[in-house]
Input
Amino acid sequence: MVKNARKKSGTSNIRPLNKPLAIAVRYRDDGSPTTLKLRDRWVDVESLTDMWKIEDEWWRKQPIARSYYQCIVDKGIIVTVFQDLHTRNWYMQRM
Amino acid sequence: MIPTTQYVELHCHSNYSFYQGASFIQEILARAVELGYHALAITDQDNLCGAMEFAQAARSLGIQPIIGAEVTLAGGHHMTLLAETRQGYSNLCKLISFTRMDTDRKRPELDHNFIVDHTQGLIFLSGCPNGEIPSLAQQGRMSEARDMAEKYIRWFGSENVYLELEQNLVYGDTTRNRRLAQIARSLGIGIVATNNVHYHVMERHQLQDCLVSIRHRKSLEESHRERRANSQFYMKSSKQMIGLFLDYPEAITNTLIIADRCASFDLTRNLDYKLPESLVPDGLTQESYLRHLCEQSAIRRYGFVDNRVKARLDEEFRLIRRHNLTGFLLIYHDIIQLAREVAIDLGLTDKGIPIEENPPGRGRGSSVAMLVGYLIGLSHIDPLEFGLSLERFLPDDDMASVPDIDLDFPRNIRSQVIKRVHEKYGWEHAALTGMISTYKLRGAVKDLGLALGLPMDQVDRLAKRAEPRHASSLSTEMEAMPEFRGMTNAPIWSDLVRLSKELDGFPKYLAQHPGGMVIGSESLIDLVPVQPSAIEGRYIMHWDKNSIEDAGFVKIDFLSLGALSQMQEACYLIESRTGHRPDLSRVDFNDQNVYDMICQADTIGIFQVESAAQMQTTPRIRPRNLFDMAHQVAAVRPGVGVNDGVSQYIRRRNKVEPVIFEHPSEHRALARTHGVILFQDQVNQVAIDVAGFSPLEADQLRRAYGRRNNLDLLQAYSEKFKEGAAKRGIDEETAKRIFAKFSGHYMFPESHAFAFGVTAYQAAWLKLYYPLEFFVAIFNQQPMGFYNLETLKEDARRHGIQVLKIDMNLSWEKCIPEDGALRLGFLNVRKVGPTTARAIIESRNNNGLFTSVADFMKRSGLHKQALDNLADAGAFDSITHDRRALRWEIGLLYNPIKSQIPLSLPTEQDMIGLDPPSDWETMQREYMAVDLHTNGHIMANLRKRLGKSILTSKDIVGLDHGTKVTVAGLIIRRQQPLGKSVYVTLEDEYGHISMILWPRIYQKLREVFKEPLVIADGYISRREGTMNVVVTYASVMPPIQVALNPRSTF
Output
């Protein structure tokens, strides 16, 4: 019998993909970010190319409400961040 | 500060976008006023159901209504269309109509080929992200998007095509808008900003989520893909919209330009509806032809046209001319002729019998007051004989709208008449009125319960046990039920309570009005969209009766009345038995024996006077002639009861209290009803006499009560009433008291009450003199009336008519008279349909009587469930009374269809000794098979287990007022007029027990009274000839458990 080379499946092996990372952000009164702290350094948001909102699961104990911003930093690097509108915390979704 | 009128919303869904829009038109308009909008478009999904309501309400608020729609194209894409002109509106109606003509009625889609010829006067917006152009742009297929845009430019013209930019802060909006703007620039066409509004305020987004889930029959958890991403689809201010479109200022400006372009079309004024003209013989005008028809009929009816008839006809024709109603009445004449042809075809009348002697239907409503109507066969009442006034139907003044003439037909005639009217005028010219089905408590609980993912067994129980009230009262209902008490604040359940309140009254779907039809000289789909009904061959328009009235359409009501079907069948059976068909229009209307029966509340099965509330009042009103009958049927109406009018009327009629008028000016209107408003017409007359309203204004006041969201309107009328009364020297307090007598609840017009009173009398006459035919007919016409077959069977027994069980060799398809008894028909048995019943009878006719169960099974080919039900119903009792053994034998003999061909093998060797069923089991199975037990009453079975202290309906007859009693029985009726005291009728083996529960007692015992069998304590109340048990306590009688344990007692 050929031995199964793969690891056993199980919930202990499940890990979230593309998990948002907490990030420090300075922002304007309207909520849009001005500066992001990336790799321990503050970088200016040069422009915002898009923003969108999601609201879901309002019937649960922890509803989802987020404002997303697509930012250009460091002359062309695209960073997507969002603010959790319930906790007011900021996260980076993608860079 | 930015002026608030810099933006106009051109893409907005009301809740007529079924299961999408989450706000009422009134809520949207109120918000638009707050936001300072001067114009607004409503663009519901594939319909114009709310267009007239919106246009009327918007105009009254000073907002320019723009009529539009979001139309679904073949392939599921959307486009937004706005009507710039009357021609554009007409094209919009046609395009919406076409969406359902060749496709699934429930999934409208417009074939692109229809668009090209119907673009004039329309402004095209490219639609939501699901539009053809926006979706291509979103996918980056720019060249295809541009080609598609060019196609629409060719169809609509470049000045009428706008690419729609929506910024709802959904991922992808920004990119798509940038690309759409780029395409628009390259093609030289405009862009326009919209917010694709689905609710008036942000907070309503949760309900919108639920609606989407309900639409897809999924829970919120399961409908993530279908729901919208966020709560940004609410009505926004100009400032907000300008902020969202800073990069595209012309998209904002263009909203104003488009609104201006649409300003010339006003739906409230620009429809030019006309009735088609009837064909008249050469040499006659429409009027001379109608007069000729009336005079010919008058000669047949009265023998000659005397001065009285001539004077009345002269007066009616003067008013008909004044209101331009000749063509209108001739159309009715045409329709009644169509109905007569149907009646002849169905063998219900003969060509030789004049129409007025055996009209195929009969009028109801105020039109009954017209002699012309009587003579051309529209009504069965001679207004001269009964002195009916013309005032409400044909006032000598302007009319608010064309009058309603409602026609009642027996069911079989009605369905054919509707079909023939469609055939005669064509579906483009004749369509049924729409009716919007709306959410009430049970529907809201079930649908929201599903969306919220609540346990469905609990949701079902709550929906089933809650009173059928407004959804907004859910919290009160839950608190009244022990199982749900205290849950209104629990997680999710609190959402259910809150959202039910919001959902209350929301439109669910477009349905068919019970019978209203509109006929137009020009194509109706130029005026309003029309779509096929669920019933083949019928078409429904998108407007309900209020919108139709606002549009000035003439609605002709073809209503089906079970009582007419019943009387028609009874007369046929009488003719079959006696050779003489009774002419119900010429029975003795002063027969005191008939009135005696009515006064004793012996009215089960009698049209209009059989309800528990009517049975409570007939012994007190004691009708003795047709005028009294009109008062009797009119008195028990919500509009009379709401102000304690019924009791007051009875007390005054019986001289228990004096007749008092608030002011002498009420006298003319109310003297004949002892100062109480019984009829709609009296509201008009009081407004005229007390406050100086014109007849037109008075009619508008009366109609205002029937409108939705009418508080402001009624307040305005209240002020006008007080001002008018003051001018006549009536002080404000008196005027207020008089105005308070009016209500929005339903009342009959006087002549309508008269028409129904006559029908009720005729039915009573049949019950008294021909009870056998009366009961056979009512059994055959079920469902109709207030009572089930078991109660009707008991009533038949009390009138000397025995109900015989089904018999395989004696029964026919329907019930029949058999030697003075009523023999049940095969159709009374569950799972036996017309085809099966006919097959049994055909086999019996062709091959002789059935000789055994095996013979029956072999020759009828029935399926097992029908056979079991026939056995349970007693159909084979002529072979053996042991129904359990019969079922065993059926089991042995039965071979399912498509199985091996059965052999006629003997079964004796396989029969086993089973105990025959008990009486209780036999009864139970009969109830399950035919809904009644021919050999007795359930209470007779239970009586032996009841203590002697529990009295029967027979025992309490002679008891004095105030005597304490305990009674038991089967609940057959429960009535709660306007949330006041509850009337319950118990039935036992001897008769009925009328019970009253005061509101506080009912609140405590309401769960008990949802069960079928109860034991109730109370005391006897005797008042003005009535006797009731006033309930003080009640408990549920658990019959089945008791029956299974023969030693148990209560």
